[in-house]
Amino acid sequence: MPFVTKLTFTSGDRRLLDDVVDGVKSAAERKGVELKGPHPRPPTDYRVPQTKRLSADGGRFESWQYTAYTRTIEIHGHDEFARDAAGDDYPDRIHVEAEIEQV
Q: Which residues are in the Small ribosomal subunit protein uS10 domain (predicted)?
């Protein structure tokens, strides 16, 4: 039975994220792998409050803000390529999640 592997790449560095995803896509095209994507999701903005001291009355610094970008790729069949792509050594700023579904 064929499998569909969904790889989700997330990073705060959009250029690096696009370079990594484009690299996976071009490798798939060279090997003849059926691939759908990359599908971009809307960026997610995060706000993290920071305290000046550990006590509750220690005051606060300005909140730390950052944006996370996400791209999703679906690989149909080609289990070996999907395994290699999911387990590849990506830069530390790239987070990869793999979701496998049996069709």
A: 6-99
What whole-number distance in Å separates Cα of residue 96 and Cα of residue 103?
22
Q: Which pair of structure tokens corresponds to residue 50?
A: 């920071």
The residues pairing with 69 across neighbouring beta strands, listed in sequence order, are 11
Beta-carbon count within 10 A of 78 CB: 19
Q: How far apart are CA 19 and CA 23, in angstroms?
A: 6
Q: Tell me: the pLDDT tens digits for 16-48?
A: 999 999 999 999 999 999 899 899 999 999 998
What are the structure tokens assigned to 92, written together? 């530390």
Cα–Cα distance, 103 to 39 (Å, whole number)? 20
Domains of the chain listed by start with CATH number? 3-102 (3.30.70.600)
Q: Which residue has the tokens 């049996």?
A: 102
